[in-house]
Amino acid sequence: MAAIVRFNSLHQTQFLCESNSKKVLSLAADSCLSSEFIVSSRFGINRRKQSLQFKLLATITETEPPKWWEKNAGPNMVDIHSTHEFLHALSEAGDKLVIVEFYGTWCASCRALFPKLCKTAQEHPEILFLKVNFDENKPICKNLNVKVLPYFHFYRGADGQLESFSSLLAKFQKIKDAIETHNTDRCSIGPNKGVGDVNLETLSAPKSKPPESSSSYKK
Length: 219
Description:
By secondary structure, this protein is α/β, with parallel strands linked by helices. The protein starts with a strand and ends in a 6-residue tail after the last strand. It has helices at residues 83-93, 108-123, 138-143, 173-182; strands at residues 2-7, 12-17, 23-28, 36-46, 51-57, 77-80, 97-103, 128-133, 148-149, 151-156, 160-166, 212-213.
């Protein structure tokens, strides 16, 4: 038998039990939940004593929402966790335009810009967006000369790196302009250059201070 439990006030709980005749029971509660859920219940009715005994078991699972940098715009937005993943993603992209965002979880400018970047990724499913966490990928960031966050690299096929710059939320139009310039139909000739002559596979994590946030960056 199923019972629907409604927590509809701070001091009262209602149990609606489905049977041949509907019965509504009130029960004092110490707390209130705003949602309605179905739980399993077992109860017996002693008509002589006019009492109701029941056993109620309910499980409430709480899940924490993802952190801002863990949110994803779709299949064309990929998190990079290693040098190998970075090189593999670039090599597999072919003639697609690839936009790489270098960010820090502690960077307020990165956080402010991120929702707009996700929206842009949804508007351009043909573009591959790579998210590179600075703290997880220091060898990449150091050798690609990433000194301020958020920072962006644009890549495409045999053309290799097309453009790189830092951009604040207030200057997001710069990213849109770069997309309009580089996101054109073309067929690259020759091998995929990836990141060019930089051999990231042989790098070790550098012992350097983190880059500056773009909030204090003036270009």
